[in-house]
Amino acid sequence: MQEDAKALADAFDLTRLSPEFAQDPFPTYRALLAHAPVKRFQDGSVMVARYADLVRIYRDTQTFSSDKKAEFLPKYGDTALYRHHTTSLVFNDPPLHTRVRRIMSGALTPRAIAAMEPGLVALVDRLLDTLPDPCDLIEHYASAIPVEVIGNLFDIPREERGPLRDWSLAILGALEPVLTLEQHQLGNTAVSAFSGYLRDLVARRRKSPGDPETDVLTRLMQGDRGEHLTEDELLQNCIFILNAGHETTTNLIGSALDLFLDFPAERARLLADPTLIDSAVEEVLRHQSSNQLGNRITTKSRELSGLQLEAGTRVHLLMGAANRDPEQFIDPERFNIARTPNRHLAFAGGPHVCLGLTLARMEGKIAIERFLTRYPDYSRDGSGTRTGRVRFRGFSH
């Protein structure tokens, strides 16, 4: 068994992944944590799997940069995808990251998020009232919730929300470690279409501004403390918020309802003690992290767990593996809804910790809690279909 795990770790390469890895990466993660927690690939890039190493990287923003211009230009060329990803909050360092994040934070205050809760409860209840039997939990429920929440945040007319999910999936799909020509084309088409739609929406909002306390788009257009986004920064970061707030939350809800089918004792435990809902959401985030993979690039030479990294080294962060690290989590393979402490890295860490984590947690909590209350004995009809992607873990159906 040890020899098999070592062979699995030795063979692991992000540029040559099998379909089986996308379905179940966790045996590989276990092997890497045991035998190769830091590993250099043939292209010179380095993979990091250990929790403690990821925390060090997240904190050391001077050495480990989030700026992706050098990495993404060869991958995308001078395309709409390149311009989008190198302008969005997540793939930038200060001062752009600081300026954009401050403006966004002003639009996603705890007060603003708390004000969304009654509307979110009403939305979830409406969806539950109309679920067909059998239903597709992704199409009819998990994906419908964040599309409506983000649509409401930007005050997007409901009749114009139809393309949002497909645009999001296409753009995020182009972040996979290896791209097909089709993924490249779909991603570029989606960025162009999304940008065109938002440009028109911004023009309409300039003529008729919304309430900056509840309308994120109006708040972003107004800026913060005298700082403003350029037109392109505004459009690309609106796309980023719409994408980030949609796909990962869909995955959180879908993974939770799937896990409670695989672990019926934990479902019964939560039904018997609803106060465990908060810790249950955190355990879903740890056990089946919506975002499994992150990236950094070194700005200077640095030693990491015995491996010397030269300046310009691309670093792959296996968040999904770090969240199963036995040095950080007791019995990490177990799904335990009362786990404490549970300082997972599903929302990354450091200055780049997910800006929308409070909203995502609220959406997950309400969607999971109210579904289980309404349908405590739900069952699977057939099998789930995973997206087949390795960066974002979730179901397509």
Overview of this structure, please?
- With 397 residues, the protein is of the alpha+beta class.
- The chain has a single domain, classed as Cytochrome P450 (Cytochrome p450), CATH 1.10.630.10.
- It contains 18 helices and 7 strands.
- Strands 1-2-7-4-3 form a 5-stranded mixed beta sheet, with helices on both faces. Strands 5-6 form a two-stranded antiparallel sheet.
- Helix 1 crosses helix 3, helix 8 packs parallel to helix 18 and helix 11 crosses helix 12.
- The protein is globular.
Concise account of the structure shown:
This protein is of the alpha+beta class and 397 residues long.
Topology, pairings included?
Layout (H helix, E strand, L loop, with lengths): L1 H10 L7 H5 L2 H10 L2 E3 L5 E3 L2 H9 L4 E2 L3 H8 L3 H6 L10 H12 L2 H20 L8 H5 L1 H10 L10 H10 L7 H27 L8 H7 L8 H32 L1 H9 L4 H11 L5 E6 L3 E3 L2 E3 L4 E5 H4 L34 H18 L23
Parallel strand pairs: 2-7
Antiparallel strand pairs: 1-2, 3-4, 4-7, 5-6
- CATH architectural grouping: Orthogonal Bundle
**Radius of gyration, whole Å:** 21 Å
Question: What is the helix/strand order?
Answer: HHHEEHEHHHHHHHHHHHHEEEEHH
Number of strands: 7
- CATH class (first level) name: Mainly Alpha
Summarize the amount of helix as a percent range: 40-55%
The separation of the N and C termini measures: 34 Å
The tally of domains stands at 1
How would you state the average pLDDT, rounded?
Answer: 94
**Total DSSP helices:** 18
The structure class reads alpha+beta
Contiguous uncertain segments of 5+ residues: none
Relative strand content: 5-15%
Strand arrangement, largest sheet?
A: 1-2-7-4-3
Q: In the CATH hierarchy, what is the superfamily?
A: Cytochrome P450
Instruction: Could you tell me the CATH topology label.
Output: Cytochrome p450
